[in-house]
Specification:
mainly alpha, 5-stranded parallel beta sheet, 40 helices, 9 strands, 62% helix
């Protein structure tokens, strides 16, 4: 929908509305034309080539009136008549010439030898003639520069091709708003404007057509209707050229210039959300009677032709391979053509099968069922990121067509990538939909799918659900003889039991896993079981055994080239060093593990390690370093949507606020963290940390105010609690005026509640006596109660505080309870 009125005398068109964006492109092109003589602006239809060319021509510092000509070639038919491009240029320049005189020679004579600029617009259907004409003119006119626009390069000597990019997000928003306000004064910007810009790939024509619809639709309605964009974007400027009045017409113009084989490849490419040459060869080539028109050996040349014609976009390299994509509007157009050709089902099945084949092959590499180096595994994770759109398309196709087995296998194969990236919630939803439809599936499909789903739940720290799925997986895995996935289920069960404080059951499941994972190809499971057992021993305060197991797991993972698994062991060793008070060793482990996780973009695990680094900095008294690490950890946890990780990060932030002298903020964040833990399924192990935080606050503020602040924190939405934590030191506690106040709810009118982890008065008394070294009999004598009653109280204390031994209770009570005044 070009808002240009070309004059009849060949001068530059008049711009009838504001030119928006592309300031850097204009500057760079003016600089380029200062040294080069032939530049071709290439891009898809509607990308804004003509508008950019006109703005560049106006901006050239030495462009003189009468020495700049604009020639629109769109209406010139390539009908076989001699030199149609040259004849059109001659007509614009007013060159008549004698009979039989070559048009190029006549045009060259009219241009002369002085400085001049010739803009050739819409050359794609006359590319060969334009190339010949431009070459002849440049040879005869030493002061001439040519700026051409075309959907493909002219391929002439000395040509520099400038690929016109889509508008960036800010430019797309600015263009939409500018055009919307032209038809609806007072138009207000909302978040949906950016959504429309993204959906339309920053394509100026599409954005202008969409903006025209604000006469009758809200931006939100426009965004919702973009699934049928060709119907929506069909009301363009009547004064614009026909090819620019609708989005479909713009793409039709390009499609009509393609050969049959190019059209066939374009429509088949619509099934991809980005691809490599190898994927095209696997999915799009002819195969028997179902598909015809594309030979495998021709695909590279055909793909190159579509790139040259600006219908396919070349992306960057991922894992050593160049990737390609279609703009969404072109992809939608090509998908319609695929349906019309009757090829949609065959191509989509082949696409899904190709995605599944690659996923299962990569899944074996991740879990070391086949040998690979760590760099090879890193490339695998990188490739997965680029393949996310294809995976979603394959899952959607399988679900829609009832291909439950394929869907389950795909979810199972990709579970590691989903866990690493912190996307377990989305992909667990896909797995659940297929599992809901999995009645009658064979054991060799169902067992691994349930075990994989258990791992997804564990990755999201939903240990109750992880245990349920892992338990269901055991029978079908055993029935199918799938020892690998049976071991996976048993190890996941052990993780869930460890989290729940059921240590004996966790150890028993690990013993079973060791027996099942004894065979070849189970090196990952054996190493992972060591690491999980090391964490179990850590929870049991058996530190020497924990260290031996974690180090053994570390060496075993590195022996199979699995640094991700090694990172799990290193994180455990860092925690062990911190608990032993060896802060230098803990920092060294964190410094070792973080680069590994960064290589594969492991967001949840990075967040957990950063939280550990924050604890180490707190223990060392380095509060600024602690705040930096904890802020990054909290932001990552929030982005991953894992509530238990957010709760843990908020707990450490509460400790930071306590050390910064903010008891009110301490209690508020502790209450928010406890509420999140309740929502996520609170496990044992939080009581000691809470008591350590709350005891000084009780002494400073009094029990009633602590209870009030605890209730306020528990009422905070997760996002507000995170914002409160990240507000920075000294920003206020949220109880009065200031930036933090807005996120804190008003005081409750009902009776405040005491934090649920608080020990009773009798339990606190007994904890203090444990710290003095008294046995159960000694405590019974001191308090004049029975030893059995003391034993029950000690068990309750251990459970509430998350401890495994009296020694832990004693060490904790020395700092928090034993020094309390006694009445």
């Amino acid at each position: 929908m070009t808002s240009l009125n070309p004059p009849s005398d060949g001068g530059l068109p008049v711009e009838t509305d504001a030119f928006v964006g592309r300031e850097r492109d204009v500057t760079d092109l003016c600089r380029l034309l200062g040294t080069l003589r032939a530049v071709t602006l290439c891009g898809a239809g509607g990308i804004g080539k003509t508008r950019l060319a006109v703005r560049v021509a106006r901006s050239l510092p030495d462009a003189r009136p009468g020495r700049v000509w604009f020639v629109d070639l769109a209406g010139v038919a390539g009908d076989g008549t001699p030199d149609p491009a040259a004849r059109r240029v001659a007509a614009v320049l007013g060159v008549t010439g004698g009979e039989g005189r070559p048009s190029a020679e006549g045009v060259a004579g009219a241009i002369g030898t002085g400085p001049a600029l010739l803009v050739l617009d819409n050359c794609e259907h006359l590319a060969e003639g334009c190339a010949e004409l431009a070459g002849a003119l440049l040879a005869r006119c030493p002061g001439l520069r040519i700026l051409a626009t075309s959907r493909e390069p002219l391929r002439m000597p000395g040509e520099t091709v400038w690929r016109v990019p889509p508008l960036d997000p800010d430019e797309a928003t600015a263009l939409f708003v500018e055009r919307a306000r032209a038809v609806r004064p007072g138009f207000a910007v909302t978040e949906a404007v950016a959504e429309v810009g993204r959906a339309l790939d920053g394509l100026p024509l599409a954005l202008e057509l969409a903006a025209a619809r604000v006469r009758v639709l809200s931006v939100e309605q426009i965004a919702q209707r973009l699934g049928d964009r060709f119907r929506l974007l069909s009301a363009g400027d009547r004064t614009a050229p026909p090819r620019q009045r609708t989005l479909r017409a713009a793409i039709d113009w390009s499609h009509e210039l393609l050969g049959d084989a190019e059209r066939a490849l374009l429509r088949r490419l619509s099934v991809f959300a980005g691809w490599t040459l190898g994927q095209v060869e696997q999915v799009c080539a002819d195969d028997g009677p179902y598909l015809a028109g594309l030979a495998g050996e021709d695909l590279l040349d055909l793909l190159t032709a579509l790139v040259d014609k600006s219908l396919v976009v070349v992306g960057g390299e991922v894992a050593g391979e160049t990737r390609f994509r279609l703009l969404e509007s072109i992809r939608g157009y090509a998908a319609e053509r695929l349906e019309a050709a009757g090829e949609a089902e065959e191509i989509r099945v082949r696409h899904r099968d190709a995605v599944l084949e690659a996923a299962e092959r990569d899944g074996e590499v991740v879990f070391a069922e086949c040998p690979a180096s760590w760099p090879e595994r890193v490339r695998l994770f990188q490739r997965h990121d680029a393949e996310t759109g294809n995976v979603r398309a394959a899952l959607a196709w399988s679900l829609e067509h009832g291909d439950v087995e394929e869907g389950l296998r795909l979810c199972t194969a990709l579970r590691a990538c989903w866990i690493v990236r912190g996307r377990a919630a989305e992909w667990a939803g896909w797995a659940d939909r297929f599992l809901d439809a999995a009645g009658g599936q064979p054991a060799y499909v169902l067992g691994p799918a349930l075990a994989g789903r258990a791992q997804l739940a564990a990755g999201a720290r939903d240990f109750a659900r992880a245990a349920a799925f892992a338990d269901r997986a055991l029978e079908p895995c055993r029935k199918a003889g799938d020892d690998f996935m049976a071991a996976v289920a048993l190890i996941t069960l052990a993780e869930a039991h460890t989290h729940a404080g059921r240590f004996a059951e966790a150890a028993a499941r690990l013993d079973e896993a060791d027996a099942v994972a004894a065979g070849e190809g189970q090196e990952w499971n054996r190493a992972h079981a060591m690491i999980v057992r090391g964490r179990l021993r850590l929870r049991q305060d058996r530190q020497r055994e924990a260290r031996e197991l974690l180090e053994s797991g570390l060496h075993a993972m590195r022996a199979i080239g699995q640094e991700w698994g090694a990172a799990l062991a290193l994180a455990g060793l860092a925690r062990l060093a911190r608990l032993r008070g060896d802060l230098a060793a803990a920092r060294a482990r964190h410094d070792e593990v973080l680069p590994i996780l960064a290589e594969i973009g492991a967001r949840p695990e990075t967040a957990r390690v950063l939280a550990g680094a924050g604890r180490v900095a707190l223990a060392a008294g380095d509060l600024p370093a602690a705040r930096r690490a904890l802020a990054e950890s909290l932001e990552l946890s929030q982005a991953c949507g894992i509530r238990l990780d957010v709760a843990r990060a908020l707990e450490v932030f509460a400790d930071l606020l306590a050390r910064e002298g903010d008891p009110r903020g301490t209690v508020l964040l502790a209450g928010a963290a406890a509420a999140l833990r309740d929502d996520a399924g609170r496990g044992p192990g939080t009581g000691a940390r809470l008591e350590t935080l709350l005891e000084p606050a009780r002494r400073a503020l009094g029990e009633p105010l602590v209870a009030q602040l605890w209730a306020q924190g528990g009422a905070l939405p997760q996002g507000d609690a995170v914002a409160y934590a990240l507000r920075g030191p000294g920003a206020g506690t949220g109880t009065g005026p200031g930036p933090a106040a807005a996120v804190v709810p008003a005081p409750r009118t009902e009776e405040p509640v005491t934090p649920p982890s608080t020990l009773t008065a009798r339990e606190r008394e007994i904890a203090a006596l444990v710290a003095r070294g008294l046995s159960n009999r000694g405590i019974a004598d001191e308090l004049v109660i029975s030893p059995a009653t003391v034993a029950r109280h000690v068990t309750n204390i251990l459970t509430k505080l998350g401890f495994a031994s009296r020694a832990q209770v004693a060490a904790w009570a020395v700092d928090t309870v034993a020094d309390e005044p006694r009445g």
